[in-house]
């Protein structure tokens, strides 16, 4: 599911920040629509992927993916609020929202894991929901009205202007995740899990320069 987070992003924050008079509600509306489409797309792709223990996705993993699908929407909301935090140079609020969501995630996973791995996934989803809710609350305190503005013009405008950056993110996603997909289709689930854990060790440090770039980006506008 996390593969679709970048597609929900699609570089639209950069486009929004370049628009001096852009309505934040338009970006929120576009993100909600695109994330809902991506949720349906992810579910549709899952139907055609092979199922099994030796190769492909096990039944438990497939159920976990379905349970985790709503986080595409939650992550889209978080990314959209980050655009406003960037514009106002208030990344401290984004940090507080993430900390709150992380604490809830730890507690929820600790509670729900007693019913199995799917329970842990539910816990992660609850944490993402709390992060999105807290981010929306902070955005409202900054003076923005939490209102979806959905129209065809704004949707096409954001998608076309963010297309170059969005395609870059897409190719980057393929570059980083193609091997993971190949292994999923050809190797046992346990081996794919170990491979994914090693990848996480490399991905976590990459978030530091990303957060730094996001925080200083508006200063150049």
Characterise this structure.
With 221 residues, this protein is an all-alpha fold. It has helices at residues 3-9, 12-18, 24-48, 59-68, 71-87, 91-112, 117-141, 152-161, 163-186, 189-216. α1 (3-9) runs antiparallel to α9.
Q: Quick summary of this structure?
A:
The protein is mainly alpha-helical and 221 residues long. It has 10 helices and no strands.
Content of β-strand: under 5%
Percent of residues in helices: over 70%
- Strand runs, count: 0
Pattern of helices and strands: HHHHHHHHHH
Radius of gyration: 18 Å
Given as residue ranges, the uncertain stretches (5+ residues, pLDDT < 50) are none
- What is the helix tally? 10
Sequence-ordered SSE layout with sheet pairings:
Layout: H1 3-9, H2 12-18, H3 24-48, H4 59-68, H5 71-87, H6 91-112, H7 117-141, H8 152-161, H9 163-186, H10 189-216
Helix pairs in contact: 1-3, 1-5, 1-9, 2-5, 3-5, 4-7, 5-6, 5-7, 6-7
Salient structural properties:
221 residues, mainly alpha, 0% strand, 10 helices
């Amino acid at each position: 599911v996390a593969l679709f987070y970048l597609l929900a992003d699609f570089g639209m924050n950069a486009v929004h920040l370049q628009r001096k008079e852009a309505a934040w509600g338009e970006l929120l509306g576009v993100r909600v629509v695109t994330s809902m489409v991506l949720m349906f797309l992810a579910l549709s792709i899952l139907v055609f992927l092979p199922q099994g223990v030796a190769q492909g996705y096990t039944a438990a993993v497939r159920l976990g993916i379905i349970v985790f699908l709503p986080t595409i929407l939650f992550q889209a909301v978080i990314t959209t609020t980050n655009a406003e935090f960037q514009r106002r140079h208030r990344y401290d609020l984004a940090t507080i929202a993430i900390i709150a969501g992380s604490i809830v995630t730890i507690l929820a996973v600790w509670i729900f894991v007693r019913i199995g791995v799917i329970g842990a996934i539910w816990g992660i989803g609850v944490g993402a929901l709390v992060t999105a809710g807290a981010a929306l609350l902070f955005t409202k305190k900054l003076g923005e009205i939490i209102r979806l503005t959905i129209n065809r013009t704004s949707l096409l405008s954001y998608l076309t202007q963010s297309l170059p950056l969005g395609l870059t993110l897409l190719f980057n996603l393929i570059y980083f995740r193609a091997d993971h997909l190949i292994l999923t289709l050809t190797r046992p689930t346990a081996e794919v899990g170990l491979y994914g854990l090693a990848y996480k060790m490399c991905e976590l440090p990459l978030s530091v320069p990303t957060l730094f770039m996001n925080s200083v980006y508006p200063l150049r506008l």
